[in-house]
């Protein structure tokens, strides 16, 4: 490893060859501002278009200013990051960007959380010397994501996520010059594109150009309607991230405070999606075992690998890109939808509330969940199993707006029965968790033995594609894991080409799984946040007495009282689904 | 005898192809097929007087020849050996007829290296190129020289890239040759996009083989076996001739495998540009060739390290390539004897604007602007006063009277606040408003900016808007300061050459014509009478005879007045098109 | 999308598919394929871009991104007599803008659009290299040099009888 010595703001620093000025400065504690650069180290995503030109610095002997994010350090280089020339240029460029940006910060969804706004505050911009034409575009309201391109600053991060990382390819830079912007083909709305609503574009947008559809007001309306029984479920990844919105360190678990806050907000029952995650394992695990047993018995008809189906972004991706393989994923619904179905039948009957008088709200780390709960197959007579899905960010706003001092709340427990869960359920929130939970249960059901060591370390980690073998008492079960749709595509292409050796594959659309979902508090380019959240998830698992889904007493009771056994006709009706060929549907739509 | 008919785009626009057919027919009708050959050639350069016909061997140079003149040309010159005097060029100063082009002011000071074959050979016939020492340099390099030796010749010649940057060509080749890779590429940049520049097209139309020859040499030097020519789709004639040339070269074994038995393989493909000025920038060009949006990327990595498909790639412009075979044939010393200390050889300029002899010229580096404008260009059109000359296209600046005597080369032009650019040279006279000129260039930049980096995307738009306000008399003196700061920041922070130079027209006109800016701002007056919002057309009562010419020609019918009565222009309706001024024969319309 | 889907001629689509095949259906050949597609269809409506995307296996958004980047590509059908006004510098200083204004005024369309009868469209182009004839106007392949505002009417008149 070659080391290079250079001077930044009169201080010497030694860095590895290939390091950019931006990172060398960071090493000295000098934070050079930028609006487009993004380095999600833990995910191997580095986006450095060198487009915003905010990070420019002065390099001795160079004619013009250098973008620090893209300029590599050279031996003996002399760099100045805050000369009059640099500061004037940086401010002027920022003023230019703002001159083509709406001034409606007060009512912007991103206010207080916007990189452009923060930079304007930091540089003390007080007026815009160059007033002129502003770009205007038709806003795009999809079921999950709002695109307001008037606020786009052409950082192109969304494009990188959508194309390079997710390989969804819905967003592209279009036009050129002042008219250039990022948009779907023919500037159609997202719901006329192959958008999966994974929300990774939203997760990286530095401004209010890409935001989620806000359903908080629908939730408030339901809560204030005395005729309605409002039930809330919270996804596992939410508890590991919500605290960040209240200034807590990334990775702080706030399960108890979250429950308390939801109660204070007026929800009649505070339940846990984890309950439904355990239920998912019962159904999906049974399906896996069934397919596996038939496969091992020599049945050539059986389709393997089986793919998990909890992630709605992934399901959308699958329906658009692999319509010829619709018999491969598990038919099990996602935990959100299983919860809704059980809440509006089993639980509604239990508390004697009519389906139409019950409102099910979900708190999700995800924006695709907003779309998922509007899918027609998840409704009975037009009444959806889950009425509204709000993101972790929306919940945080809601709590703040209700004047609740979140950090001072006492820890409270979920209500029963739909609030009871095992450690296997909570790890659904991170990549590899679903398949680990499934392995814990499948092992015991398949072998009839007790699994002593429940932690499958081999299934954990952050590599985009991982594989491991799990010993099912002499039978090697090959498991694949992918997070990020680009990685999923690679796995799927292998399956399609008959190259895949896996028995089961877990796929999550978002980097890191749900903890990196499009509805989570913004990581602002710091991907270590995701690792901290994953750690929190595993620590909650460890702290649980029960860590296998089939040991959840409320689940056992649900089967006894209502469903019969996993895979029963009733279970199929309520907890399983089927998939659609969206590629052909897309053609019909046009 | 040969009759050379100019087949360049300019002359073809004046029916030179019909002229060619007519001449052929006349030759046939007179049964002269065995004695007289009619040949279409590339551009002669003297576009102002096109179409051109040149007789070989006596070098008679006919100008502004029309198809109907064919009969006389054949009957007189070909048959009887008598010159057709009425078609000869007349020297504007002494009114003498000049028959041989080398005595014409337009050609006297020119040295034609890159354009050596343009107007001399039939570009569609490889044998004519071969007869003009074509592919000799390639043979020499492939069979007698090592790549290092050939690169050294190019290095020693001092040749610098003619596309605008002026980077030493030999050095570029050397870097590309040193980067190891399983595949390398040689790219000819023929995406000429400066508004008002057409030298690359003329070379490709007039002498396509010279580019192919140079690309083979380039490939051999850096170890590339594939060449790509990135050419504007709007150049149909150049594309057609290139395709013919490539076909012929393959047929003759000058492209393909084992060229001339040297063991070296090289072939060339054509890629089409699709109308994006920014693709003149090499990284943008490479992305465009890869089927992407032509957005530049930060350098390093340079194309020589990672270019087309991630492989080492050498990009040179057409004119640069056109110099290579001559340099190899005549040697580095010969080439470096022409020009100035740091700029060797010649430069092709597209001379245009308010000048008598519009056309394509090739002059030695070090020639002065005065020589170019007054001797070659024949001075300002209509006897008007010279005001400025714009070099370097939208990236360049406007030079004035005080710059007329500096020797033209890469460094002097930059020092004077402009640049060489690809070679556009637009002459402006007293009727041109320099604020409006700056605005014109900015309009171009705004349209051509790729939009990737903020200073270029938004900054140029704001520059253009500010200039627009000035031309409307709506700006303040404070705005002028802001304009200057904004220009400097755009130059200082933009991602690629387009943004780094786009404010040059503003800065150079502010530097040299600040008074004009001030007049617009403080007096709300356009001294050249160009900016519509600051001028009005009025009838000078004492001169108006009431001929009604103005009223009849007014497109919006805003001029009233009876026959033989003084007319009146309705200022509310007037769109300031200037038609009345053009039509008035009595000097009775004034711009105020 | 509420707009009516354009029905492409099957034989043209077939031709386009063959073009794509001749370029080995390679994504890197996108611009070459688009050039050919524009030759076949005259312009590049969404439906054509969708076929190109499918054949080269690239996202249609990317195809659209490329089409909208290059000025040579158009998503609107050009007129039967496409008028191109050179707005290169040489033509500009010799009055191209006035000529352009006159075309716009008479045809009542802005640059980039086509008259409602589909007869004329106006575009601007950069230097055609006939600077000696500035200002230059092209109608289809025919070049008109030294055009004056008065001359505009006469040029248009030439196409009166051709319908």
Summarize the topology.
The complex is a heterotrimer of chains A (590), B (592) and C (163).
Chain A: E1 3-8, E2 11-16, H1 21-27, E3 38-40, E4 45-47, E5 56-59, E6 66-67, E7 78-80, H2 84-99, H3 115-122, E8 140-141, E9 145-147, H4 157-165, E10 172-174, E11 181-183, H5 200-204, E12 210-212, H6 216-223, E13 229-234, H7 255-265, E14 269-272, H8 273-296, E15 306-307, H9 312-321, H10 335-350, E16 358-364, H11 368-372, E17 379-380, E18 383-384, E19 388-391, H12 392-401, H13 423-426, H14 433-447, E20 465-472, E21 475-483, H15 485-496, E22 504-508, H16 528-543, H17 553-563, H18 569-575, H19 582-589
Parallel strand pairs in A: 1-7, 13-14, 13-16, 15-22, 16-19, 21-22
Antiparallel strand pairs in A: 1-2, 3-4, 5-6, 5-7, 8-9, 9-12, 10-11, 17-18, 20-21
Helix pairs in contact in A: 8-10, 8-14, 9-19
Chain B: E1 2-6, H1 9-13, H2 16-29, E2 37-41, E3 53-56, E4 61-62, H3 70-80, E5 89-90, E6 97-98, H4 105-108, H5 126-131, H6 136-144, H7 147-157, H8 169-178, E7 185-190, H9 199-206, H10 208-222, E8 226-232, H11 236-251, E9 267-273, H12 282-289, E10 313-317, H13 318-330, H14 332-336, E11 346-353, E12 359-364, H15 369-376, E13 386-391, E14 397-399, H16 410-415, E15 424-429, H17 434-448, H18 454-471, H19 477-493, H20 497-501, H21 504-512, H22 514-522, E16 537-539, H23 549-553, E17 559-560, E18 568-569, H24 579-583, E19 589-591
Parallel strand pairs in B: 1-2, 7-8, 7-10, 8-9, 11-15
Antiparallel strand pairs in B: 1-3, 3-4, 5-6, 11-12, 13-14, 13-15, 16-19, 17-18
Chain C: H1 10-22, H2 30-41, H3 46-56, H4 60-67, E1 81-86, H5 89-93, H6 96-107, E2 120-125, E3 137-139, E4 142-144, H7 149-157
Parallel strand pairs in C: 1-2
Antiparallel strand pairs in C: 1-3, 3-4
Helix pairs in contact in C: 1-2, 1-3, 2-3, 3-4
């Amino acid at each position: 490893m070659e080391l290079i010595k250079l001077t930044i703001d009169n201080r010497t620093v030694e860095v590895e060859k290939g390091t950019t000025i931006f990172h060398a400065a960071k090493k000295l504690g000098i934070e050079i501002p930028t609006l487009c650069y993004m380095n999600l180290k833990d995910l191997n995503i580095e986006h450095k278009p060198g487009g915003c030109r905010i990070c420019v610095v002065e390099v001795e002997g160079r004619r013009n200013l250098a973008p620090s994010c893209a300029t590599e350090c050279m031996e003996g280089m002399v760099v100045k990051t805050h000369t009059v020339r640099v500061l004037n240029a940086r401010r002027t460029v920022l003023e230019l960007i703002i001159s083509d940006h709406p001034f409606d910060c007060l009512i912007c969804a991103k206010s207080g959380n916007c990189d452009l706004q923060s930079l304007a505050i930091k540089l003390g911009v007080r007026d815009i010397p160059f007033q002129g034409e502003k770009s205007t575009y038709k806003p795009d309201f999809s079921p999950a994501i709002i695109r307001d391109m008037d606020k786009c600053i052409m950082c192109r991060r969304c494009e990188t996520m959508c194309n390079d990382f997710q390989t969804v390819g819905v967003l592209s830079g279009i036009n050129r010059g002042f008219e250039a912007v990022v948009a779907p083909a023919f500037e159609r709305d997202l719901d006329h594109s192959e958008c999966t609503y994974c929300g990774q574009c939203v997760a990286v947008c530095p401004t209010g150009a890409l935001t989620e559809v806000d359903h908080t007001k629908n939730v408030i309306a339901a809560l204030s309607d005395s005729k309605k029984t409002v039930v809330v479920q919270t996804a596992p990844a939410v508890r590991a991230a919500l605290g960040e919105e209240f200034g807590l360190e990334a990775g702080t678990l706030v399960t108890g405070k979250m429950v308390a806050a939801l109660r204070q907000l007026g929800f009649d029952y505070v339940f846990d999606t984890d309950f439904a995650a355990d239920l998912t394992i019962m159904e999906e695990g049974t399906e896996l075992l069934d397919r596996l047993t038939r496969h091992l018995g020599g049945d050539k008809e059986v389709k393997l690998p089986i793919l998990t189906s909890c992630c709605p972004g992934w399901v959308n991706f699958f329906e658009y890109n692999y319509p010829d393989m619709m018999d491969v994923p598990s038919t099990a619904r996602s935990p959100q939808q299983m919860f809704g179905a059980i809440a509006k039948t089993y639980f509604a009957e239990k508390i004697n509330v009519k389906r139409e008088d019950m409102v099910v709200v979900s708190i999700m780390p995800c924006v695709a969940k907003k779309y998922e709960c509007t899918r027609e197959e998840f409704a009975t007579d037009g009444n959806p199993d889950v009425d509204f899905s709000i993101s972790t960010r929306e919940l945080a706003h809601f709590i703040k707006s209700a004047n609740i001092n979140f950090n001072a709340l006492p820890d409270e427990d979920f209500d029963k029965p739909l609030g009871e869960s095992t450690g296997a359920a909570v790890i659904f929130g991170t990549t590899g968790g679903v398949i680990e939970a499934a392995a814990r249960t499948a092992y015991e059901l398949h072998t009839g033995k007790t699994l002593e060591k429940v932690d499958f370390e081999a299934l954990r980690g952050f590599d985009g594609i991982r594989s491991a073998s799990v010993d099912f008492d002499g039978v090697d079960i090959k498991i694949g894991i992918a997070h990020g749709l680009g990685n999923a595509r690679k796995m799927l292409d292998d399956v399609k080409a008959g190259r895949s050796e896996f028995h089961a594959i877990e796929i999550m659309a978002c980097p890191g799984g749900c903890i990196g979902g499009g509805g989570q508090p913004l990581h602002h380019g710091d991907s270590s946040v995701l690792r901290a959240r994953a750690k929190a998830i595993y620590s909650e698992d460890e702290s649980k007495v029960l860590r296998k889904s089939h040991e959840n007493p409320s689940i056992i009771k649900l089967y006894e009282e209502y469903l019969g056994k996993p895979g029963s006709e009733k279970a199929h009706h309520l907890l399983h689904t089927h998939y659609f060929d969206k590629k052909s549907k897309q053609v019909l739509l046009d | 005898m040969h009759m050379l008919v100019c087949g360049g785009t300019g002359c073809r626009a004046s029916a030179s192809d019909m002229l060619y057919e007519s001449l052929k027919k006349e030759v046939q009708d007179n049964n002269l097929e065995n004695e007289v050959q009619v040949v279409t050639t590339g551009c002669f350069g003297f576009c102002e007087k096109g179409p051109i016909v040149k007789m070989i061997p006596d070098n008679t140079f006919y100008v502004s020849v029309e198809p109907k003149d064919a009969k006389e040309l054949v009957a007189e010159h070909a048959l009887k050996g008598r010159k057709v005097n009425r078609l000869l060029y007349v020297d504007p100063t002494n009114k003498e007829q000049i028959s041989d082009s080398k005595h014409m002011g337009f050609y006297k000071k020119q040295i034609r290296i890159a354009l050596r074959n343009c107007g001399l050979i039939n570009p569609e016939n490889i044998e004519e190129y071969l007869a003009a020492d074509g592919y000799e340099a390639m043979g020499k390099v492939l069979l007698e020289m090592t790549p290092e030796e050939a690169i050294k010749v190019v290095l020693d010649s001092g040749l610098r890239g003619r596309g605008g940057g002026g980077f030493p060509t030999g050095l570029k080749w050397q870097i590309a040759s040193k980067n190891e890779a399983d595949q390398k590429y040689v790219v000819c940049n023929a995406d000429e996009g400066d508004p008002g520049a057409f030298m690359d097209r003329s070379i490709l139309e007039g002498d396509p083989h010279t580019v192919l020859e140079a690309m083979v040499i380039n490939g051999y030097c850096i170890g590339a076996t594939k060449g790509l020519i990135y050419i504007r789709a709007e150049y149909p004639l150049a594309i057609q001739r290139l395709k013919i040339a490539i076909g012929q070269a393959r047929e003759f074994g000058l492209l393909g495998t084992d060229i001339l038995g040297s063991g070296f393989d090289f072939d060339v493909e054509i890629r089409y540009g699709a109308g994006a000025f920014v693709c003149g920038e090499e990284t943008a060009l490479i992305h465009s060739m890869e089927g992407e949006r032509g957005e530049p990327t930060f350098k390093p990595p340079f194309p020589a390290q990672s270019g087309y498909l991630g492989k080492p790639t050498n990009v040179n412009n057409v004119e640069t390539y056109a110099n290579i075979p001559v340099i190899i044939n005549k040697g580095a010393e010969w080439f470096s004897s022409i020009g100035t200390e740091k700029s060797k050889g010649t430069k092709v300029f597209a001379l245009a604007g308010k000048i008598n002899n519009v056309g394509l010229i090739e002059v030695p580096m070090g020639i002065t602007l005065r020589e170019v404008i007054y001797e070659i260009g024949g001075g300002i059109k209509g006897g008007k006063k010279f005001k400025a000359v714009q070099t370097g296209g939208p990236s360049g600046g406007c030079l004035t009277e005080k710059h007329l005597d500096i020797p033209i080369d890469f460094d002097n032009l930059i020092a004077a606040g402009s640049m060489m650019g690809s070679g556009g040279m637009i002459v402006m006279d007293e009727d041109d408003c320099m604020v409006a000129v700056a605005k014109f260039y900015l309009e171009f930049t705004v349209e051509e900016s790729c939009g990737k980096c903020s200073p270029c995307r938004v900054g140029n738009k704001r520059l253009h808007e500010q200039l627009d306000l000035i031309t409307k008399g709506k700006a303040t003196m404070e705005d002028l300061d802001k304009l200057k700061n904004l220009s400097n920041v755009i130059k200082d922070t933009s991602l690629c050459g387009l943004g780094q130079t786009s404010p040059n027209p503003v800065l150079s006109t502010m530097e040299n014509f600040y008074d004009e800016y001030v007049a617009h701002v403080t007096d709300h007056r356009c001294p050249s009478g160009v900016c519509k919002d600051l001028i009005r057309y009025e009838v000078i009562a004492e001169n108006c005879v009431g001929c009604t010419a103005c009223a009849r020609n007014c497109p919006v019918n805003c001029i009233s007045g009876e026959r033989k009565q003084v007319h009146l222009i309705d200022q509310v309706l007037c769109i300031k098109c200037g038609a009345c001024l053009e039509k008035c024969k009595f000097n009775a319309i004034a711009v105020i | 999308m509420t707009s009516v889907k354009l029905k492409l001629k099957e034989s043209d689509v077939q031709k386009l598919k063959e073009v794509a095949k001749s370029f080995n259906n390679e994504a890197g050949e996108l611009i070459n394929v688009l050039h050919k597609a524009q030759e076949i269809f005259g312009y590049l409506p969404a439906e054509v871009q969708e076929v190109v995307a499918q054949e080269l296996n690239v996202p249609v958004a990317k195809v659209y991104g490329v089409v909208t980047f290059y000025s040579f590509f158009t998503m609107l059908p050009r007129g039967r007599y496409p008028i191109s006004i050179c707005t290169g510098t040489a033509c500009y200083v010799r009055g191209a803008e006035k000529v352009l204004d006159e075309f716009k005024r008479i045809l009542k369309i802005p640059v980039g659009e086509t008259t409602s009868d589909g007869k004329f469209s106006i575009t601007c182009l950069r230097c055609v290299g006939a600077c000696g004839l500035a200002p230059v106007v092209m109608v289809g392949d025919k070049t008109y040099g030294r055009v004056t505002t008065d001359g505009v009417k006469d040029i248009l008149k030439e196409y009166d009888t051709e319908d």
